[in-house]
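A reminder before we start the practical. When you read a complex entry, don't treat the lines as separate problems. The point of joint prediction is that each chain is placed relative to the others, so the output describes one connected object in space. Small molecules and nucleic acid strands, if listed, are placed in the same frame. In the example below there are two entries. Take a minute to note the order of the lines before looking further.
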Amino acid sequence: MISCHLKSCELYGNSLVPNPCDTCHIKTIECRYVTSYVAQAVKQAICLSGSSGLFARATDEGICSKCKVREAGELTPEEEISIISHDLRNYCSSRACRYELVGEMEKSKAVWEKLAYYYSKLLRIYSDDISLCIKQGEICVRLRKYEKAREYYSKAIEYYSKGWGDEPGKTDPQQKSKAIIISDLYVSLASTYNLEKEFDKAIHGYSRALEFNPQSSNAYITRARAYESKRAYDKAINDYSKAIEINPQYKTPYIYRAEMYKRKRDYNNAIKDYSQLVIISPDDSSKYSSRGSMYVKIKEYVKAIADYSAAIKAVKHNSMKAPYYLNRARLYITLHRHDDAIEDCFMAIEAAPDFAECYRIRSFAYRKIGRRDEALLDWDKYQAIKKKQLLDESELLNKMKDSLKERI
Amino acid sequence: MNSLVEDIFFKSIQIILSMAHASYIANRNWEAE
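Here is the predicted structure of the whole assembly.
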């Protein structure tokens, strides 16, 4: 069998040598050179040594592919057919698809690693399909292997930039879609720096992306986030504004620009952004509430009350209305409308009976209008809920400590 | 802090992937012809 493998190596000029697996100790093939001929060489090995040869695939690790397959679970009938027909492409595609089918949120690190493994196989077979390279980059980001991800994206950029020249701005209109891909790849590359908190390198990458596609709102938004991290708020606002110019219906840059204005205590401009958001999505209660809190900052209490009323009307679930009722109650107290404040507290308590703050505010309102007994009752209720919450929290903390001790 | 960057990254990568794969298929078909 070994001699068959060696024959196959001689046939294709690859350095395929028998190597024992760390798990099953069976001698298998390890390919020392990754070339486009690997698949053909392995196929040849299969022909010479029978179906088990399929597992003698290129691997840089000590565990043979057969053991890896066992780890990954039972084979599907289609995969078995792929094995019998010695079709490595179908086999790898099928395994990759199986792991792809696991929901994005449910994918564990092990699943992403399996995906990386099968995509690397596919990339060796379809070395001219650069989308596999981009996919590997994405998987590396999922696995927090940013340096490796950058290698894949740089390779993809190099592939698309062939014959491009040094002046990305002067592109042939027919190559616009290519320029968009290059730009997006630069955004991806820069984002790996951004996620690693290397903001200067990230900003440089996003700027490069904008040279290829000045209409990339994603490049402006992500660059703005990098500027935010460097506390360059004016530059961040400028980039969010550019993103808004490109797509005035895109909510995200308004939300983040409003946040920037808030940090700069420029509440009037923040209100303008929230007003745009209210126009874009009039059913979103949180935008009314955010604008309401800005009106409070500039002491426009009547307008703030109107916004909290709109938020109460917009929100669908009753329990979600409680914080808006409470905020409106606070404003009524500021305006000495204590009866309205008490009514709002009733509504908030009805929506969320364990919302302690509502009892405190209602107690305050009762005291202001001389209803001392009701004020005391509410104060006791407030204290009782707070005490229970503190006990629950300490119980939870103890449980967490115990579970940590068990792990250690 | 970086959830927006990650969000944009993962969404846009799907678009790039489909564009790159489409251009790969188109090139392959063109070569076959």
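Discuss with your neighbour: Chain B touches chain A through 18 residues (CB under 8 Å). What might explain this?
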